Amino acid sequence: PKADIGVTGLAVMGSNLARNFASKGFVTAVHNRSYSKTTALIDEHGGDGQFVPSESAADFVASLATPRKIIIMVKAGGPTDAVIDELSELLEPGDILIDGGNALFEDTIRREKAAREKGIHFVGCGISGGEEGALKGPSIMPGGSKEAYASLGPILEKISAHVDGEPCCTHIGTDGAGHFVKMVHNGIEYADMQLIAEAYDLLRRGAGMEPAEIAEVFAEWNRGDLDSFLIEITAEVLKQVDAETGKPFVDVVVDAAGMKGTGTWTVQTALTLGIPVTGIAESVFARGLSSSTKQRAGAGNLPGPSQPWSVKDRDAFVEDVRLALYASKIVAYAQGFDEIVAGAAQYDWEIDRGAVARIWRGGCIIRARFLNRITEAYADNPELASLLFAPFFTDVVSKGQDSWRRVVAGAAQSGIPTPVFASSLAYYDGLRTERLPAALIQGQRDFFGAHTYQRVDKEGTFHTLWSGDRSEIQEDGHTP
Ligand code: 6PG
């Protein structure tokens, strides 16, 4: 029989995705630049379902039922373009090309447009969940046309993770919307990971706890509000003991965090859109600092505070850190969703935030119990200006804010860096401040550059003659 779906690029993510399709009953065409990977997949996992292997791209395309659906699972950037170029020559109008990698959404917009001119549907599709997710059910964020989703959607929904019987896959919006939302997902992932790392650092250096004890704390947190994949695996990583040295795993790993760029894109895009994603930005910078070998070599030259932290009540401190983590995490999501709203306005996408939260409940790296609450918040009020204004989250933060402040203040006093805890708190305080000092900045701008300002008490645009008699004029030249 002709294949229902094809996967090209059979590295771990690609082969696991192909196995997922096959095991769900889809006849799955598989292809890879070097054929040995294709045969290896069939040799090892041919029993998962019905595979149709092809050595050449032409045979691969010919093995698919029309309209053909092909998922590209190769490196983002040049390699993706190369595969698109090769396949486009072989496809027919109506066929659907899906890019399942972490592509930059602007590339996806460009590729969709080029494909559309040839009558081919191009679906930029965010896929989250790592290797295991790809195999057992990821969270899937497809963009592209509604028309493409109509025939592709049911297949993707079937192989996605399911929560309460609902698939973790929905049509996000046209062209680059899916990759945009996946990008923001990764930004939130960075913030969440950095927050957990800061919490660990506080428990270890602030409260003097050992990794194994901290693992217990995280395992405990995972049974409550913070129940999430990242908290769960954190407990596992902290429990791990290095076989060679007998030391905790976290003590033998070089403390320089890697990154492949999606967090950076989230922040770059947010800056362009003018959206403060401070927690996400600090988490990207924190990875940057960790890898700044030259600067960090001078660590010993920089004095710290005179007083080390003396945590008196360990249990109370652990609870403070938990609440600070929860509140900061809500801020990271609030900021991420703000970026999604701004992106949707800029690129003309209709993105349903509640649906995004819903498909992030399972399969993906940031899956967490509290995404149910986010889904509910947007269901109650689809126009919510900030997630922090949803009654449930306002309540969580208000109950946690004293803890949050104690943690950030204590960390500052004792010299433990908590960039995401601290910046998230500053953002929260910025948001609840009736009058920000921005009026003074407007004055400064008007002083040195005649940049003008608005007044609180009347309409219009004004400028003060700072180097003249300091009287005020209205921008159109009339003195008010
Ligand atoms: C996922 C992950 C996945 C990957 C990212 C982040 O959703 O499954 O986000 O896409 O882990 O590429 O990787 P870096 O930490 O290397 O940037």
TrEMBL record:
Binding of NADP(+), residues: G9, L10, A11, V12, M13, G14, N32, R33, S34, V74, K75, A76, N102
Domain 6-phosphogluconate dehydrogenase C-terminal: 178-467
Gene3D superfamilies recorded: 6-Phosphogluconate Dehydrogenase, domain 3 (1.20.5.320), N-(1-d-carboxylethyl)-l-norvaline Dehydrogenase, domain 2 (1.10.1040.10), NAD(P)-binding Rossmann-like Domain (3.40.50.720)
Lineage of the species this protein comes from: Bacteria, Bacillati, Actinomycetota, Actinomycetes, Nakamurellales
Biological process annotations from GO: D-gluconate metabolic process; pentose-phosphate shunt
Reaction equations catalysed: 6-phospho-D-gluconate + NADP(+) = D-ribulose 5-phosphate + CO2 + NADPH
Domain of life of the native organism: Bacteria
Involved pathway(s): Carbohydrate degradation; pentose phosphate pathway; D-ribulose 5-phosphate from D-glucose 6-phosphate (oxidative stage): step 3/3
Name of this chain's protein: 6-phosphogluconate dehydrogenase, decarboxylating
Quaternary structure, from the entry: Homodimer.
Binding positions (substrate): N102, S128, G129, G130, H185, N186, Y190, K260, R287, R445, H451
Keywords from the UniProt entry: Gluconate utilization, NADP, Oxidoreductase, Pentose shunt
Keyword rRNA-binding: no
Residues at the catalytic site: K182 (proton acceptor), E189 (proton donor)
Main function: Catalyzes the oxidative decarboxylation of 6-phosphogluconate to ribulose 5-phosphate and CO(2), with concomitant reduction of NADP to NADPH.
Stored InterPro entries: 6-PGluconate_DH-like_C_sf, 6PGD_dom2, 6PGDH_C, 6PGDH_Gnd/GntZ, 6PGDH_NADP-bd, NAD(P)-bd_dom_sf, Pgluconate_DH
Family the entry assigns: Belongs to the 6-phosphogluconate dehydrogenase family.
Molecular function per GO: NADP binding; phosphogluconate dehydrogenase (decarboxylating) activity
